[in-house]
Design goal:
The chain is mainly alpha-helical and 185 residues long. It is 49% helix and 6% strand. It has nine helices and two strands. Strands 1-2 form a two-stranded antiparallel ribbon. α5 packs antiparallel against α6. The protein starts with a helix and ends with a helix.
């Protein structure tokens, strides 16, 4: 869900620090939390710092994970880890293994899913939604470029052809499926 909502790369998801998750009751917002991801604290491509926008509901769920689930996993090991997500052995997931890919495919979706597909989905849907907003004070393509950490706008422009190829009905149905899946989680 973090990858789908923010466009983080696999190695960024797996090294995302627990310190980036805050108690939403102490720092309430209306829409999104702006989180600056730093190569000093986690893996980032090209060792560049950038900001991502974490939806309020996701931050609330990540906080609940920090309070309730992570301590159980963390207690399995003497070592303490900075990474947010721990596996069933209480250790961070390896950025070299395919464990995350396997877990995603265990969701039972009718298609194969990989962490990078979450990134593509985030980019495509965010561009689509922003382009449909009238009177934006910013360029949607630049916004997505900055969230994804692309150094060139040309890289981000690749997502434009996906938007042209997808009909409104398909996008709306897909969004309903994502919403249903997230409510079930």
């Amino acid at each position: 869900r973090l990858g789908l909502a923010t466009g983080l790369r696999k190695e960024e998801l797996l090294t995302f620090p627990k310190s980036y998750v805050i108690d939403p009751r102490r720092y309430p917002v209306n829409g999104f939390y702006i989180v600056t991801i730093s190569p000093k604290e986690m893996s980032t491509k090209g060792s560049h710092e950038r900001s991502i926008h974490v939806p309020k509901s996701l931050m609330e769920d990540l906080w609940q994970y920090i309070i309730h689930e992570r301590p159980i996993l963390s207690a399995l090991r003497e070592d303490q880890y900075n990474e947010l997500f721990l596996n069933e052995n209480g250790k961070p997931y390896s950025t070299k293994s395919n464990t995350l890919n396997a877990r995603l495919n265990k969701l039972g979706l009718p298609f194969d899913i990989f962490p990078h597909i979450l990134r593509h989905t985030y980019a495509t849907h965010t561009l689509y939604a922003l382009q449909r907003q009238p009177n934006l004070s910013f360029n949607p393509l630049m916004y997505v470029r900055d969230r994804l950490g692309h150094s060139s706008i040309t890289t981000t422009e690749r997502y434009l052809h996906f938007i042209d190829d997808i009909a409104d009905i398909v996008l709306n149905e897909y969004q309903r499926e994502i919403d249903t899946m997230l409510i079930a989680v």
